[in-house]
TrEMBL record:
Keywords: 2Fe-2S, Iron, Iron-sulfur, Metal-binding, Redox-active center
Residues binding [2Fe-2S] cluster: 29
Protein name per UniProt: Glutaredoxin
Gene Ontology molecular functions: 2 iron, 2 sulfur cluster binding; disulfide oxidoreductase activity; metal ion binding
Location of the Glutaredoxin domain: 16-80
CDD domains according to UniProt: GRX_PICOT_like
Highest taxon above the source species: Bacteria
Length: 111
């Protein structure tokens, strides 16, 4: 499977996914750490992909949605953005409702 197809599969199969350096439990950069913490504060489950564990994803993810930096957060197949955008959403109190809506939409489509 082509790397862009693998990325697409992760984005499509997970209602909320963060492509980050490390894991939410063991982040490997400050931006990934702060973003994952903000997402965890919502109490909504989300998937993650450690881009450091897969050099192909690390090299090609910036091409996938034309977004040059890590982390990258997707909800319901759409790029939300990176650290700055997610932190702004978190500070405005908008991140948790967005994540809840993405999770609820996924649950509806499963039933």
């Amino acid at each position: 499977m082509d790397v862009l197809e693998r990325i697409g599969k992760q984005v499509e199969e997970n209602p909320i996914v963060i492509f980050m350096k490390g894991s939410p439990q063991m982040p490997m950069c400050g931006f990934s750490s702060r973003t994952a913490q903000a997402m965890q504060a919502s109490g909504v489950n989300f998937a993650y992909v450690n881009v450091l564990a897969d050099p192909e994803i690390f090299e090609n993810l910036p091409r996938y949605a034309n977004w040059p930096t890590f982390p990258q957060i997707y909800m319901n197949g759409e790029l939300v953005g990176g650290h700055d955008i997610v932190m702004e959403l978190y500070q405005k109190g908008e991140l948790k409702p967005m994540m809840e809506a993405a999770a609820a939409k996924a649950e509806q489509s499963e039933s």
